[in-house]
Amino acid sequence: MLWRLRRALAVSVPSLVMLALGLWGLDRAGMWRDEAVTFQVARRTVPQIWRLVHGVDAVHGLYYLLMHAVLTVHPGEVVLRLPSVCAAALTAGLVAALGTRLVRPRVGQWAGLLYAITPMAGHYAQEGRSYALVAAGATGATVLFVRAVRGGSWWAYGVALGLTCWLHEFAVLLLLAHALSLALARVGARVWRGWGCAASAVGLALVPMILVSRAQSAQVAWLREPTPETALGLLRTFLGPTDGVCWPCLVLALLGLAGLAGRRGELTCAGVALPLVVVPPGALMLVSQVSPLYVDRYVLYALSGAPLLVAAGADRVAGAAARLWAHGDGTTQGHPRPPGPTRTSPLSGSPLLTLTGVLALALALTHQLPLLGDDRDPGRRPDDLAAVSRVAGRAVRPGGAVLFLPAQTRNTALTYPGAFRGARDVALARSAPESGSLYGQEVGAQTLRRRVGRLERVWVVADRDLLAGRWRPGNPAEQAKLAVLARDFVPGEESVQGDVAVRLYVRRSALSRSSGPLPVRPLPVRPRPARR
Fold first, then answer.
1. Residue 332: is its pLDDT beyond 90?
2. 7/252 Cα distance (integer angstroms)
3. What is the model's pLDDT at position 528?
4. FRET pair for 472, CA 20 to 30 Å: which of 72, 118, 291, 483?
């Protein structure tokens, strides 16, 4: 009963801590662009979502269907993020379960708590995207993997990993990590056959997703090749972004590598954790040297291995300290210790050892608390569409003309339509749900010039870098928007919110007929946040 209680506490405490941190500041009162896509797509009908994923975002199709069911209950920002919070709490518990199975309950508890207080885990716990769910599925599949090697069901492992890959196809890289774990454990042919059957089933089930998403590869054309600095940055993100946490965790993780290959046929903590934390990111970075596909959130699930290594190293340090204390009085200057009771280390009791580790983790949490607090600010995301919509709502009047440049900035109107109620979307031909696209189908360049040519004033919601000329669109309709604004209009008042500007343009001929120059009333400017 005592052993079961320890195991239950080891798993439940990290889950509760992660749940509390995930719920803290969950209502940021603003979505950024990726969350906004989830929000507006998930509120479409199932046939509309099905049509969408045949043209774009197939990799997120299962997640959109899941979120469709969730947002049916209540279409709000907090509800949008709740599945990610719950998934992160589950992941923390699963990390703890791995540590408990592979070593002992205190290692599991330390690993789960370290996962819960890692800023990267907290960031995606509050993101209305699929990555926290993928991390939960991958960690759960790893638990089932360990169980299967020890005589459990390989089909349960295959089903869990297959579903996880349908949440995001790059979770398939977990198969490479598990194959390396089997090689390090030097398992027999029976285990290899069981794993091979499950892996083959996962691969076959993923073929339709791969075929469809390959045709949609233009969506990630903006990615660049990762560099050595990218790998070092990911390592630092996994271990802790501050020096006070990163370096101690790195030392403990290296100590946790001891005993990487245990007895033949037996999985070790390091033998499972090291491939998990290294192989998926490393494989994706290598592939990205040829075809760039790497973003750190795509391999968030690999984070689960880092706290396991750190906790295993801490357990070795604690065990060595206890042994040194216990043998400290064995001899003194070559003379035997006098008869009497053996001195007992105050760290030798498992509960006290566990508590010592928990206190160290509480200190690490205190050290990283400012980072976690800052992450609750919507300004820490690349953009804040709620802030953009508030500016647009004050500026754009019913009947006023609005132009979105490029079309992706229409995401603001799709997510917060109240701010644009009654406004005329100059470039829109068919709505996003009707056209089976993310942002709607726009008119061609010639029609756009004719529509804009009849306007005296137009509000433009635009990408800042595009307006500043830092990049040029390849789409002819987007080029036509820029050309007609530069030729026929004069910019006036504007507001900048992150990467998005809301700017008024007035026709030159209308300006020349006016009695004076165009009054420029700068709206509040918000500094551009640092990109993550």
1. no
2. 23
3. 40
4. 291
Q: Which helix (H) or strand (E) holds 489?
A: strand 489-497
Q: Give the range among 143-152, 198-207, 328-337 with minimum mean pLDDT.
A: 328-337
Query: What is the pLDDT, as a whole number, of residue 529?
Result: 38
Q: Cα–Cα distances in Å, from 386 out to 24, 411, 419?
A: 20, 11, 9
Residue 76's contacts (CB-CB under 8 Å, 6 or more residues apart) are none
Longest dimension (CA), the chain: 108
Alpha carbon 509 to chain centroid, angstroms: 49
Residue 401 three-state SS? strand
Answer whether 172's CB lies under 8 Å from 156's CB.
Answer: no
| Tokens standing for residue 429 | 């031909």
Kind of pairing, strands 489-497 and 331-332?
A: unpaired
Residue 492 DSSP class: E
Alpha-carbon distance of 187 to 54, in angstroms, equals 42
What DSSP line would sit under 297-312, residue for residue? GGGGGGGGHHHHHHHH
Give the three-state DSSP class for 519.
coil
Q: Is 413 exposed, middle or buried (0-12, 13-18, 19+ CB in 10 A)?
A: buried
Q: Return the structure tokens found at 515.
A: 């009695």
pLDDT exceeds cutoff 70 at 340: no
Provide DSSP, 435-477: HTSSS-EEPPHHHHHHHHHT-SEEEEEEEHHHHTTSS---SHH
Structure tokens at 507: 């026709």
Torsion, Cα of 283, 288, 293, 297 (10° steps)? 50
pLDDT digits (tens, 9 = 90+) for 32-88: 999 999 999 999 999 999 999 999 999 999 999 999 999 999 999 999 999 999 999
Hey, what are 348's tokens? Answer: 């030798």
Question: Is the Cβ–Cβ distance between 434 and 494 less than 8 Å?
Answer: no
Handedness of CA 84, 86, 88, 94 (dihedral sign): negative
If we measure between CA atoms, which residue out of 250, 269, 245 comes closest to residue 108?
A: 269
The SS3 of residue 55 is: coil
Q: What would the two tokens of residue 297 be?
A: 């959130």
**DSSP label at 168?**
-
- Residues 130-181 pLDDT 10s: 999 999 999 999 999 999 999 999 999 999 999 999 999 999 999 999 999 9
Q: What's the rounded mean pLDDT across residues 114-120?
A: 96
HEC per residue, 193-240: HHHHHHHHHHHHHHHHHHHHHHCCHHHHCCCCCCCHHHHHHHHHHHHC
Q: Is 521 helix (H, G, I), strand (E, B) or coil?
A: coil
